[in-house]
Amino acid sequence: MIYLTRRCEFSASHYYHNPAFTAEENQRVFGKCANLNGHGHNYTLEVTVKGEVDSTTGFVLDLKQLKDVLSDEVVEAMDHRHLNKEVPEFANRIPTAENLAIAIWNRLKVKLKSAQLHRVRVYEMAELFVDYYGEE
Amino acid sequence: MKAHLTRRYVIAASHRLHSDQLSEAENRLTYGKCNNPYGHGHNYAVEVTVSGQVSPSTGMICNLAEIDECFRREIMERFDHQNLNTRPEFADCVPTTENLAAVIFDILKREFRAAHLEKVRIEETQNNSFEYCGDAEQLQ
């Protein structure tokens, strides 16, 4: 089994707000992330797929296909966008790094045909990242 | 939905690798320049990985502020800008980064209850890193 990782970056804005919470609860739970004017990050995404090496191509999967899927599903959808307002997954879900990793996993899972998705890692900043391995 | 979250902190500390169970020559042979009697220091980058279900109401595994506060109180207060050899945690073991990872893991396991502690990983330098997942746990 070989694991292959591809990295890409995108910049986006977000804020944390749960409409079921009072203003005070939102402030207490989410701190400065609750500011409704939002704020932004340079996100780094690492996608790891796994599979056997194809004996005719020497590939686990066609990197071009992975690059195109990341471009369509992540960069086009999220780069220089507001996650709360422009990415449908976050219409009713808080765009934390946790939920972002899950949303990206779900987008990639249905598009990657030839290799198995192993891990989605989302860096919100150098000091903070989230890993999602699918339903365990 | 279960996810893993990793937070990175930096601790500046000094240490000297020296075992009382070895002779002076054996210490020198085993630890090389890390056995220098006056010690030396590192900026240790400590990565703490926790896991848990993502809460539908907050979108979070646990509140980052709680991890930060626990790490500050339990780890920074003990070890930042300290000589590790003088700390009680290393009274009976050599303050290698292997042992530092295990000590930090055991303290956080005891003190941090808001999510499951998966792993402590420490970069001693850019070229050396050490991971500890507890005795009974395996790396993913």
Describe this structure in words.
With 136 residues, chain A is α+β, with helices and mostly antiparallel strands. Chain A has a single domain (2-132), classed as 6-pyruvoyl tetrahydropterin synthase/QueD (Tetrahydropterin Synthase, Chain A, 2-Layer Sandwich), CATH 3.30.479.10. Chain A contains 4 helices and 5 strands; from the N terminus they run βαβαβααββ. The model of chain A has no long low-confidence stretch (mean pLDDT 94). Chain B is an alpha+beta fold and 140 residues long. Chain B has a single domain (2-132), classed as 6-pyruvoyl tetrahydropterin synthase/QueD (Tetrahydropterin Synthase, Chain A, 2-Layer Sandwich). Chain B contains 3 helices and 5 strands; from the N terminus they run βαβαβαββ. A 5-stranded mixed β-sheet of chain B has the order 3-1-2-4-5. In chain B, helix 2 packs across helix 3. Chain B is elongated, with a radius of gyration of 17 Å. Classes of the chains: A alpha+beta (136), B alpha+beta (140). The A-B interface holds A 16, 18, 20-21, 29-31, 93-99, 101-102, 126-133, 135-136 and B 1-9, 49, 54, 57-61, 63-65, 140. Strand 5 of chain A pairs antiparallel with strand 1 (2-15) of chain B.
Short summary:
The complex is a heterodimer of chains A (136) and B (140). Chain A has 136 residues and is α+β, with helices and mostly antiparallel strands. Chain A is built from four helices and five strands.
